[in-house]
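Q: Hi! First time doing this. I have a protein sequence and I read that you can turn it into a structure. Is that right? Here it is:
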Amino acid sequence: MRIKLSDGGQVARLVKFLAFDPNAMVKQTADDEIEVWFVGSLNVWAQQAETELRLRSWLAAHPDVVATMLD
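A: Yes, that's right. Below is the predicted 3D structure, encoded as structure tokens:
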């Protein structure tokens, strides 16, 4: 799942937030974009749902940032 942020300066904070879980793999792919996937038995739908849930939580604390899920 790729996520593009409106503020590239916030990417490192989002990576740190998402990477707290050892099952979440997070890779920065561009100045304003990351890729997230989960190790384990989650199917594509479950990975998307989990990513969206975590992203919404992070965005609640960063209302000035807009995020777009690309995959």
